[in-house]
UniProtKB/TrEMBL annotation:
UniProt-recorded Gene Ontology molecular function terms: 3'-5' DNA helicase activity; ATP binding; DNA binding; hydrolase activity
Domain UvrD-like helicase C-terminal, residue spans: 290-571
Pfam families: PcrA_UvrD_tudor, UvrD-helicase, UvrD_C
Species the sequence originates in: Arcicella rosea
A GO cellular-component term linked to this record: cytosol
Name recorded for this polypeptide: DNA 3'-5' helicase
Length: 770
């Protein structure tokens, strides 16, 4: 038990407290996750059967990393733990016991796209206006209800909700919820929220099942407890009712999912539900330098609504937080990539030591481009992941339908893929026939001639025979996931269709499908060793629960810079961290700011961002940014003003590693001119506001034109031939011609220098009329 030496006193106390409820609410980087890891190892060493330990983490990735550490400490026993995200653990339980609710163990998991597509279909079938009954809105309402454990019947009978729906002009909302639930059930499918909702119903209505799991899980632990919602809380509470051995760790200052129904109240509820609960404080941060810890403390102190706690560190003071100012979002990308490159060289670091964190996924583009130009490898976590690509989802839909023929969304995706000449009307008709007769789409399709004569009947019959042949491979011949998948890819015609498409996109789609097949092969090989289930159904379960923070590298080269949203970065740590896009309306996000509580949630998010950094923290903001196709001026984020300025300085003189000469006639600045403003000898400004207000020189950005500092695009409505203009990227030019084509207006412009003639779409062009 040597590893207990790697813990401080309160951490050790937490690890050794094994009987009775325990709560640790402590600041970032204080070793909460480490305590859970060590505590699990400790329990196993004390003789607790790993099958009786349930460890709930925030991402599958976190679970994987913890499992690895536990295995290092206790050996193979660590493999038998129950650990993973709420969704993955309870999906597994529903595979075993969902039958009590009428689901088979092969139920499909609908992702958000499937759910919204089903909602759109129902809205259409009921003849409702899809501009009022937007799939997004309906989906969020249903999700909100489920997370508060309000089922469709209760929803329909609830007068408060009814009044709210009327106010929102959605009187049919309750009926849609009910129909949606019914259709999912008929499709033997659960959406993400159902995985928690149905677990609650299972435990509520089937006491014997609950009893089984209460006896099974003698020790339950939850990481990131502050981000559980009520539905998750109730599951944990019920499961631990018998043993009372519940240990939760979290940090109210890092609660960032209130918008999805997570509630800090769960911390208070827990104290009420377990009056004799022990609490342990952890106050020492082991992750970050003093400057970072203290800057983070200075921010979070602005939140009124928080539990009091101290965070200190004995780590070195470290360098000041660096502020990087860019004139535009593209320049922000270039400056950060350059800064990163220089730091990497100067400190002999690896790419994995760096993370670029942003508020929204869309911000990644500028950084991707600049990193690529400097040949720095990166990985994007979140965003459009591999499994969300169209061709990958298409093939997965085939697999889903072969495993579960009731899966209506999978059916709709593949019935006309590759093209069989079956249109939307026919597809909708099949769905309606199934729903009206209370049977599955498969029962309609496999007996199509009973329901429809028409000219499509033969084609559909052919499709049904194809699916039947795949089913035989799975059910009768018991082929493994790879054999079935490779056969389906070929026999369905999907692979051929992609292979025949010789465009660049077509080629990359073909490669993605091959990559999917490779990953299935890998899955089968891994599971062969572990003697686990290698069926197609088991593969599907694994992929449908990958969270956005779990994407892996396509080519196994792991030395990459991480690009991700701050939400996705929770719990992680990096040597150098860039928090980018520090602008009003972006961070804090305009979309989220309705009230003081929202601002506090954004501030907690900022606290999460800052506390990811170990050694160095950089923050950047741009003075203008493209939004919805327009260049908009931006203001620095109020959060920058909130950091105690003694911890901040402007980044100095970021040079480009290799600079190409600018084309003739273009503005070019010398290295001396691009120096950041001089703040005197101390280099410590007295207030952040004054620091930001100082005009920083605009750095050279390769061969791209640098617009004048007051560049504000003009309204191009009045642009006429002969006008002289300035373009944000292309510099000065003269309008040669205006083309009007429907609502599109285009201008042919002769730019100076090497740029030459360009045709620009005026609704997007950033032009200043001179
Ligand atoms: P977060 O709130 O961000 O999730 P956390 O409280 O879970 O943070 P950990 O990730 O467990 O913190 O720990 C932060 C870092 O400090 C990790 O690198 C961990 O290994 C290290 N650490 C924690 N406790 C100790 C200790 N007693 N001695 C040395 N290092 C420690
Ligand atoms: Mg943690």
């Amino acid at each position: 038990m040597d590893y207990l030496k790697g813990l401080n006193e309160p951490q050790r106390e937490a690890v050794q407290h094994i009987d009775g409820p325990l709560m640790i609410i402590a600041g970032a980087g204080s070793g909460k996750t480490r305590v859970l890891t060590y505590r699990t190892a400790y329990l196993i060493e004390k003789g607790v059967d790993p099958f009786q330990i349930l460890l709930l983490t925030f991402t599958n990735k976190a679970a994987g990393e913890m499992r690895q550490r536990i295995e290092n400490a206790v050996g193979n026993d660590g493999k038998n733990l129950w650990m993973g995200t709420f969704h993955s653990v309870f999906a597994k339980i529903l595979r075993f016991d969902g039958k009590h609710l009428g689901y088979t163990s092969d139920f499909s998991i609908y992702d958000t796209d499937d759910s919204k597509s089903l909602i759109r279909a129902i809205v259409k079938e009921r003849g409702l206006d899809d501009k009022v009954y937007k799939a997004n809105v309906i989906y969020n309402r249903i999700s909100g209800a489920k997370n508060r454990l309000i089922g469709p019947d209760e929803y329909l009978n609830n007068s408060v909700i009814a009044a709210d729906d009327t106010a929102a002009k959605l009187p049919e909302m309750g009926k849609l919820y009910k129909l949606y639930t019914l259709r999912c059930f008929q499709a033997n499918a659960m959406d993400f929220d159902d995985l928690l909702y149905n677990t609650n119903i299972l435990f509520r209505d089937h006491p014997a099942v609950l009893d089984k799991y209460q006896r099974k899980f003698k020790y339950i632990m939850v990481d990131e407890f502050q981000d559980t919602n009520i539905s998750q809380y109730l599951i944990v509470k019920k499961l631990s009712e018998l043993s009372k051995n519940l240990c939760v760790v979290g940090d109210d200052a890092q609660s960032i999912y209130a918008f999805r129904g997570a509630s800090i109240d769960n911390i208070l509820n827990l104290e009420k539900d377990y009056p004799n609960m022990a609490t342990i404080k952890l106050e020492q941060n082991y992750r970050s330098t003093k400057n970072i810890v203290e800057a983070a403390n200075s921010i979070i102190a602005k939140n009124k609504n928080q539990l009091k706690k101290k965070v200190f560190t004995e780590n070195e003071v470290g360098s000041l937080i660096e502020l990087i100012k860019a004139s535009s979002d593209n320049e922000e990308g270039r400056l950060i990539a350059t800064h990163l490159f220089e730091s990497k060289m100067a400190h002999g670091l690896r790419n994995t030591d760096f993370a670029i964190l942003y508020r929204t996924n869309a911000q990644s583009r500028a950084f991707e481009e600049s990193l690529r130009k400097l040949n720095i490898k990166y990985r994007i976590i979140g965003g459009l992941s591999f499994y969300q690509r169209r061709e990958v989802k298409d093939l997965l839909a085939y697999f889903r339908f072969v495993v579960n023929q009731k899966d209506e969304e999978a059916f709709k995706r593949i019935i006309n893929l590759p093209k069989r000449g079956i249109g939307d009307t026919t597809i909708a008709k099949i769905a309606v026939t199934a729903s009206e007769n209370q049977i599955s789409v498969w029962e309609v399709v496999s007996n199509i001639k009973q329901f429809q004569a028409g000219r499509f009947a033969d084609t559909i019959e052919g499709f049904a025979d194809l699916i039947k042949s795949f089913k035989i491979m799975v059910e009768v011949n018991k082929k493994d996931a790879y054999e079935v998948a490779a056969h389906i890819a070929k026999a369905s015609g999907l692979l051929r269709e992609l292979h025949e498409d010789k465009t660049v996109e077509g080629l990359s789609r073909y490669e993605n499908v091959q990559e999917l097949l490779n990953s299935i092969k890998q899955f089968v090989d891994d599971n062969e060793v572990e003697e686990e289930d290698k069926s197609l159904s088991s593969f599907l379960q694994t992929v449908s629960l990958l969270t956005t923070a779990d994407s892996d590298d396509p080519d196994g080269d792991n030395d990459r810079v991480t690009l991700m949203t701050i939400h996705g970065a929770k719990g992680l740590e990096f040597n150098h961290v860039y928090v980018v896009g520090m602008e009003e309306d972006l961070f804090p996000s305009q979309m989220m700011l309705q009230s003081r509580a929202d601002l506090e949630e954004e501030r907690r998010l900022f606290y999460v961002a800052i506390t990811r950094a170990e050694k160095k923290l950089m923050m950047s903001y741009a003075e203008s940014r493209y939004q919805y196709g327009r260049l908009k001026p931006c203001e620095p984020s109020r959060f920058l003003d909130e950091i105690d300025p003694q911890y901040l300085q402007f980044a100095k003189n970021i040079r480009r590693p290799e600079e190409k000469p600018a084309p003739q006639g273009f503005v070019r600045m010398t290295n001396r001119e691009q120096k950041a403003p001089d703040f005197g000898t101390s280099n410590k400004p007295t207030s952040t506001a004054s620091l930001i207000a100082k005009p920083a020189a605009r750095p050279v950005v390769g061969n791209t034109y640098i617009p004048s500092q007051d560049f504000v695009p003009s309204d191009t409505k009045n642009l006429v031939e002969g006008d002289r203009v300035e373009h944000l990227k292309f510099g000065f030019g003269k309008v040669k011609k205006i083309d009007i084509n429907g609502t599109d207006r285009k201008a042919v412009i002769q730019f100076e220098g090497t740029i030459g003639e360009k045709t620009l779409l005026l609704s997007f062009a950033k032009l200043r009329i001179l």
